[in-house]
Write a structure and sequence with these properties.
Oligomer: single chain
Helix content: 40-55%
Shape: globular
Distance between the termini: 28 Å
Radius of gyration: 25 Å
Strand content: 15-25%
Structural class: alpha/beta
C-alpha cells in the first residue's frame, strides 16, 4: 500500500536535557550514539532491501543538501517530491519498509519513472536503485511472516526455511542451552544444511549440532551484524567512562562482552545488574529484546533506548508502586494463602523501579509508550524488573487523529478523557500486568517452587494443577508465536480490570468531585476497549489468516470477550453502506457485567501462563481472536476509516571537544530525514 499522508510528532527533550550535568550529557551522548548504531541491525532484520533503501534515501538527501525543491524537473513534479518525502519519513521512522505496528509493507506513492530519474543524480544512487528497484514497489512479499509467496522474514534469510525446519532447530538450541533471541536461521547456499547465525562481533563457527533424524547438522556461526555491534560496543565503552555509579559500569561492560561474544548468558547477567540501577538520571535499554516480529515468536529485534528521567512524574508513580500489594490482592487469582495473594502470585512483591522518562534516542521499529523489562521470567522472579513510561511518546496519544468510532454526541468528552484514562491504563499494564504472576517451575536440580506432593488448586477447574515448566522450558519456548500476544493481552486485562477500583482512582486524583470524575474515567476506558478492539482489525491479514501485531490481536480478543460474555456492556453498531462503526458502552453494566467478563478472561490467561498449559491456551485464545463472519465486514470499514500513521522525529546530540550539544528538528517529514542524515549511521 502506498503511503500518502502521515502524522508527524516531535519527541521533545530539550528541557530535560538541559537539566543534566556535563558528565550526564556526555554519558547520554555516547549511549545515544550506541543506540543509533543499531539501526542497520534492525534494517537487516526487517527485509533484504531495507539497508539499500535506507542508503538511497540518505544519498538522495546528500545530493541535494536537503533542498528538495531542487529535485523538481521534467520527470519529477512537486507532488512527486511530497509523496517521496512522506515515504522516506515513514521508512526512517519504522526503520524499514514494513510498518512496525502491523508488519505490512508500504511503498512510495510515485511512478517508477520518478525513482529512475532521481537515481541518475549520482553513481551511488544508480547502483542502489538497481538493487532496490523491484522490492521497493508494490509486489510480494506484502507482510512479515513465515517465508512464503506473500510473506517473508529476515530472521530466516534466503526464503528457504519452513516452519517445519524451525521447530526442531529450536529444540536443539534449547537442549544445548543456546538462547535464540539474538540468532537468525538460514539454509546453507548449497542447501545441504542449516546455519544458526549468532549476533556477535567475533565471527567463525562456534559449534555444530546433529539433527535428530541423523541427516546433517546445524552449525552455530558467529559474526552476524558484527560491524554494527562493534560500533555499538565502542560507544558503550566511551559511555562507561562517564557512568554515574559502579552498577552502570558493570552492566555496560556486560553489554559489551555479550555483544562481542554473542553470549546471552552474559546479557542475562547485565539485566540482573540493570534492574538494580534504581532511578538513574539517564535510563537505557539495549539488546535483542522483543520477539514480536518473528513469526515463530522467539527471535528478537535489536533495540536501543536512551532517555532522561522526569523526577516530578516519577514521584507520582512511586505512590502507586508503594501500594501495589493492596491491589494485587484484588486480582482474580488472589486467595487467602500467601498473604492474600494466592499460590499463583510471587511470595513477595518487591516494589520495582518505576520511572517516567523522556526519550532522547529510541532506535526501534515501534515507539512504545511504556515498557516493562527484562523479559526473562526467572530474572523477574528472582531479581525484579523495571517499568518505564515514555512521557514524550505518551502525550502524542492526546494529539493524534483517531478512528471515528465514538458517536458525535460523545466525541468531545471522549477526547477530553482519553489521555488520562489511557495513561493510567498503561501504568497499570506495565506495573501490575507485566509485574505479577508466578510461574510453576521444576528446576534442573529436581527442585520445585511449589509443593509438588500437594499441588495448588487451579481456581478454574477446582482441581490440583497437572502441568508446569519442566527443566529448560521457558514461557516463549513453550508458547511460541502466542507468547507475546498473550502476555500483552494479560497485562492489558489487568489494567482494565482494575480501572474501576475507586480507591485506586482516588490515588490517581479522580473522585466524585474531580474535574474528570472517577466513573467517567472508567467509562472512557471501556470506550477505548471498544475502539482499540476495532482498530486492531486493521492489523489482521485476511489472506493469510495471521495477525501482524501482538497488541492488536490482544485488543480484538478483549473486545470479542466483552461482546460475547459482557451482557451488553459494549455494543457495536455497523452501518456498512456508510462505512461507519459506533462503539456504545452501557455505563450501568461496567461493574456488574464488564468487569466479570474481563476477570474471567484474565484468570484463564493467567493460569495458562503459570502452569505452562500452551495447548489449552492455544485453543482458548485462538477462538477469542478468530476473525470471521461479521468481523471481516467490520475490518473493511476499519480500513476505510484508518487515520494516517504516526511518525516521530528525534533529536541528535553532537560532541565538539568536551562539549555536548543538542539539536531538535522541525516536526515535518523533511525534519525526520534531516535528523537521520545528521545521525551518520
Amino acid at each position: 500500500m502506498a503511503v500518502s499522508e502521515v502524522q508527524v510528532f516531535r519527541l521533545d527533550i530539550a528541557s530535560q536535557f538541559h537539566h543534566l550535568t556535563d558528565r550526564e550529557k556526555r554519558y547520554a551522548h555516547h549511549m545515544a550514539r550506541a543506540a543509533w548504531f543499531g539501526t542497520r541491525i534492525i534494517l537487516r532484520q526487517v527485509s533484504p532491501e531495507s539497508p539499500a533503501i535506507f542508503d538511497f534515501i540518505l544519498e538522495l538527501h546528500r545530493t541535494c543538501s536537503g533542498a528538495w525543491g531542487s529535485l523538481i524537473g521534467p520527470d519529477v513534479s512537486s507532488e512527486d517530491i511530497r509523496r517521496l518525502l512522506t515515504y522516506a519519513a515513514t521508512f526512517l521512522s519504522n526503520v524499514g519498509n514494513f510498518y512496525g505496528s502491523g508488519d505490512q509493507k508500504f511503498v512510495p506513492g510515485v511512478e517508477r519513472t520518478v525513482l529512475e530519474a532521481l537515481a541518475t543524480r549520482s553513481p551511488v544512487l544508480t547502483s542502489l536503485y538497481e538493487e532496490i528497484s523491484e522490492q521497493i514497489e508494490a509486489r510480494p512479499p506484502f507482510s512479515l511472516g513465515y517465508p512464503s509467496e506473500t510473506a517473508q522474514s529476515s530472521y530466516y534469510p534466503g526464503g528457504l526455511i519452513s516452519e517445519s525446519d524451525i521447530t526442531p532447530v529450536s529444540k536443539i538450541l534449547e537442549q544445548n542451552s543456546v538462547f535464540p533471541e539474538n540468532t537468525r536461521l538460514q539454509r546453507k547456499a548449497d542447501g545441504a544444511g542449516l546455519e544458526v547465525l549468532l549476533a556477535s562481533v567475533h565471527d567463525g563457527e562456534i559449534a555444530r549440532f546433529p539433527l535428530p533424524d541423523g541427516k546433517g547438522s546445524v552449525r552455530l556461526v558467529g559474526g552476524d551484524h558484527s560491524t554494527e555491534l562493534e560500533r555499538v560496543c565502542d560507544e558503550l565503552k566511551k559511555a562507561s567512562k562517564y557512568a554515574a555509579n559502579d552498577l552502570q559500569t558493570q552492566f555496560l561492560n556486560a553489554y559489551v562482552e555479550s555483544f562481542q561474544s554473542g553470549s546471552l548468558d552474559t546479557y542475562r547477567d547485565s539485566q540482573r545488574l540493570w534492574v538494580n540501577d534504581k532511578a538513574p538520571r539517564v535510563e537505557n535499554i539495549f539488546g535483542f529484546v522483543e520477539p514480536y516480529r518473528d513469526p515463530h515468536g522467539i527471535r528478537a529485534e535489536f533495540e536501543g533506548l536512551v532517555a532522561i528521567a522526569d523526577d516530578e512524574e516519577t514521584r507520582l508513580l512511586s505512590k502507586l508502586v508503594e501500594s501495589s500489594s493492596t491491589f494485587i490482592r484484588r486480582l482474580p487469582w488472589a486467595t487467602p494463602e500467601n498473604d492474600g495473594k494466592g499460590p499463583f502470585e510471587k511470595n513477595l512483591f518487591e516494589p520495582p523501579d518505576f520511572s517516567s522518562i523522556h526519550s532522547l534516542a529510541y532506535c526501534s521499529s515501534i515507539i512504545f509508550p511504556g515498557i516493562n523489562l527484562p523479559n526473562y521470567n526467572d530474572i523477574r522472579q528472582e531479581d525484579g524488573f523495571k517499568n518505564v513510561i515514555i512521557a514524550n511518546r505518551m502525550v502524542t496519544e492526546s494529539q493524534a487523529q483517531q478512528y471515528p468510532f465514538i458517536d458525535a454526541s460523545e466525541a468531545e468528552q471522549f477526547k477530553k478523557h482519553k489521555y488520562p484514562a489511557y495513561y493510567w491504563w498503561v501504568v497499570l499494564h506495565e506495573l501490575l500486568g507485566h509485574g505479577t504472576g508466578k510461574m510453576m517451575v521444576e528446576g534442573v536440580d529436581g527442585s520445585f517452587n511449589f509443593d509438588v506432593e500437594n499441588p495448588p488448586m487451579n481456581p478454574i477447574t477446582g482441581k490440583p494443577i497437572t502441568s508446569w515448566y519442566k527443566p529448560g522450558q521457558t514461557w516463549t519456548g513453550e508458547f511460541g508465536d502466542l507468547a507475546t500476544t498473550v502476555d500483552e493481552c494479560r497485562a492489558e486485562l489487568v489494567g482494565a480490570y482494575l480501572m474501576d477500583d475507586l480507591e485506586l482512582l482516588e490515588m490517581f486524583g479522580f473522585n466524585d468531585d474531580s474535574e474528570i470524575r472517577a466513573e467517567d474515567l472508567t467509562y472512557n476506558l471501556y470506550q477505548q476497549l471498544g475502539t482499540d478492539g476495532l482498530r486492531g482489525l486493521s492489523n489482521f491479514n485476511v489472506d493469510s489468516g495471521k495477525w501482524g501485531q501482538a497488541h492488536s490481536r490482544a485488543h480484538f480478543a478483549m473486545l470479542k470477550c466483552l461482546l460475547q460474555d459482557g451482557g451488553g456492556v459494549i455494543v457495536i453498531t455497523h452501518n456498512k453502506p456508510k462505512k461507519s462503526l459506533t462503539v456504545q458502552v452501557d455505563r450501568s453494566k461496567i461493574r456488574t457485567h464488564g468487569k466479570q467478563a474481563l476477570g474471567k478472561m484474565l484468570l484463564h490467561l493467567h493460569m495458562f501462563r503459570c502452569t505452562a498449559d500452551s495447548k489449552g491456551c492455544r485453543a482458548y485464545y485462538e477462538n477469542l481472536s478468530r476473525v470471521n463472519g461479521e468481523y471481516v465486514d467490520w475490518r473493511e470499514t476499519v480500513l476505510a476509516n484508518k487515520p494516517p500513521p504516526l511518525v516521530f522525529v528525534h533529536a541528535n546530540t553532537f560532541l565538539a571537544e568536551d562539549t555536548v550539544s543538542l539539536k531538535e528538528y522541525e516536526p515535518t517529514v523533511e525534519g525526520i530525514i534531516e535528523s537521520w542524515a545528521q545521525r551518520k549511521v
